[in-house]
Amino acid sequence: MKSAKTLWILAGCIAAACAGTSHAAGRKQAVDVKAMSDSPAPAGYVLSGFEANDWLPAFAEGTEMKVVLTGGEDGRALEISYNLKEPGQWVSITRGLEFPDHDRKAVEFLYKSDSQLKNDLEIKLIDEDGTNFGHKLPIEFSRTWRKVHIDLTDFAYWWGGDPVLGKVKQVAFAVSGGRKGAAAVDLDDLRLVDSLKKFPPKIKSGLVDDCESAKDWIAEAGEGASAKLSETEGKEGKAILLSYDIGGGPNWVQISRMAPMELAPGSVFSFDLKWGGKKNVVEFKVADNDNSTFGKKFENLSNAGQWQEVRVPVSELTYWWGGNDNLDMAKVKGIWFAISQIEGGQGTVAIDKIELTPGK
Q: pTM score, two decimals?
């Protein structure tokens, strides 16, 4: 590969940010767009043309790493030369790059490599609170540029922050795994493009979740609290059941489900709810793609142990945190139910048949 004036980075320190490690959950193959017979993805939004050597390097102790500018497909590219001397070592580069939006989007980039070590190339997306979402693909030997297309929905939560990817603030590439040895990989033309996947239409009205299964829901708990999701007998069929213990101090638990929606000012959420145990606050929340979170609290629920219908007009949701105080109603990404403290202790909340009535 073409060489340039080099910056040698000798082993001896570990940069804590952006290590390429085995924390990754699962592996999905990226799409090689050149191998597809369909028309290519749109040109998209250029995140980095790699025209400058302005990415922050990091590496495991004992490795060698060299980052240089080299010839790209059109202009310049970035070459990462590395020498992994022990199993489990890694090298990475990171740069501040903000995504304008990642709803129904994908990332594309070009790479080529002289490696036959069966290393992995990782790409990581890091949001404002340090949440890392990542994707791995095997580095294949290629003297010509290969275009890689990775849908944002194929990135998995790896570590940090919380399991929800907010507004992306940083992007990292890492080399990890495979056999030890020296090789190089060149990167060029990183873009944010439209997804090639076919998505179901956004929910504007009708059933959001029939709550027959808890498989699409995620449970979270504050430090010292506990939350468990299961299924129970519903008002009709089954319902999802949150069993929790928030102890005696200020604490919280919550469950969430991603469900892209398009709301109107007059839209109304409705659901059936049954609670038991200690009396606490039930919260209903929605968030848009930049994590602007709006919600409503129910502090005076009565009739414990009985099903009751709850209606939440979108006009009654107020700004709580994240993003900004303007809910993008065309890009609502999901719903949350949370429990915060009045009496604390243990309790249950069952939810059934979540619906959205269209606004006028």
A: 0.59
